[in-house]
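== Protein entry: sequence and backbone fold ==
=== Local backbone shapes as whole numbers ===
==== Amino acids and backbone structure tokens ====
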Amino acid sequence: MYTAPLADIRFVLHALLGDQVLEGLNDFPDYSTDFADSVLAEAAQFAEGVLAPTNAPGDREGALWTADGVVVPAAMKDAYHRFVEAGWPTLRGPPSSGGQGAPMVLCAAVEELWASANLSFKLCHMLTSAAVESIEQRGSEEQRRIYLPKLVSGEWTGTMNLTEPLAGSDLGLIRTRAEATPAGFRLYGQKIFISWGDHDVADNIIHLVLARIDGAPAGTKGLSLFIVPKVLVSADGTLGARNDVHCLSIERKLGIHASPTCVMSYGDRGGAIGYLVGEPNRGLESIFIMMNAARLSVGLEGYAIGERAYQQAAAWAVTRRQGKSPAATPVAIASHPDVRRMLLSMRASVEAARALALYTALQLDLGAHAPDASLRTQAQARGDLLIPIVKAWSTEMGVEVASMGIQVHGGMGYIEDTAAAQLMRDARIGPIYEGTTGIQALDLISRKVGRDQGAALFDLLEQMRHELEALQPNKPADHDMCAEALVALVALKHSAHLLVGYLAHDVTHAQTIAVPFLKQCGLTMGGWLMAKADALAAAGVGGSSEFLTAKRLTARFYATHLLPQAIAFGRTVECGANCLID
């Protein structure tokens, strides 16, 4: 069973983040807290009643390759059709193409529910949304007219085709080529690990494919982006002949079994017809639009899986009776201190990650839509800074929490019948998908911290310090949440200064401690938001008394059990590079 955590999501959106700042903006004329709550309530019903029941059957049945195309589990296909009929794909889409244009922060909150309910299902919609964003920003007027309405409605789905057998994260090695002909481009090559690259839930699949035009420069500077439809589309939008793109096989993999991971072949029968997106040799810029959107979305998948793992472990712990009470009778294992420790670790990690991800999404909303230019610049820089942290820290945490869920179940957790194992298997793709944790850490230190010598980071750290000091009581009690968060913040600021120095003098030194630095950022920023949540709960703001009491206890646990890990990562940043270099 899965229950959407609406109380905490609403608390984060309205009380902690103050999404009311979006009300009245020209681009969100209908947005209000009431609107957000109604969308979340409807999404919760769909996630709980339609998607969640397909999760375990979809895992057992899995996607199936056939000579005629890939077949997904019947329940998933039915759920997708209901998803489209209910209009959910349009929530994030541009209004000019039939979308609702909802703020990213609300869409991220809704996407968590899809990911918790059925991660395999959610991946299809995630990639379609990313394709919409790329075509919207870089496609021609004709491309937007032909492809966006059907993608936005969900009638068609989209994919991102980057990886090749010899070109994984190093996109400069891509060999798929595009040949210019009088009639347009024809593509030849093979792509691997293409999520939802083929399926039977929609009439067409719009592939966005990185390829190299014949004669283009080597490396990433010679890459171009192409729209390659599975079925060719006429100028009036009607479907025509089948294009020369085929799924050769699907992968047998650890988890997300109902999400077909495809080996795609282009041009086996004369060349796949493709349409250039944007300018030649600037495909990487276009694909990064997709990747940025996908990275935030994958990050929330980490804590979404963690939420479901926590719910399942908590339900097990209050019904499973093992061990003796002082009265020598068996007790629920939730009574045992170490089980309580694990459950609180799971809950606190998820709540901190949720707060940071939704904070990041709100920054991106403000970066794109705030009326004040200086606020837009600051918010966009902050959102860009936080995306690799959200993606990597949240997904690593998701694996940890799902593993802890198995531990709470004990031996039964290792048995597939309890479904705890599926969550662990599904979660494991998160730290790999859309750029590994190491790649996110390199992006953080080089493209985000390095490009402005840490200006955006230090600006955020200063705001965190100001807010924490304002919240701190006159006479801090032992283990006061704000005091603990300030200690972690001082350590992170020290690490940030060290990192800027490393980048200036020895990039290799900086690269060796990039992942510990990213994790220190995630834990510390999570602590800042949990401290603010604790202060709101203490003031009685944002929920029922029962919810706020639980929030305070969870925040206290985060401060004393999880936040100290940030200090340890700081020591690694300071002292841990030389042994790797040596």
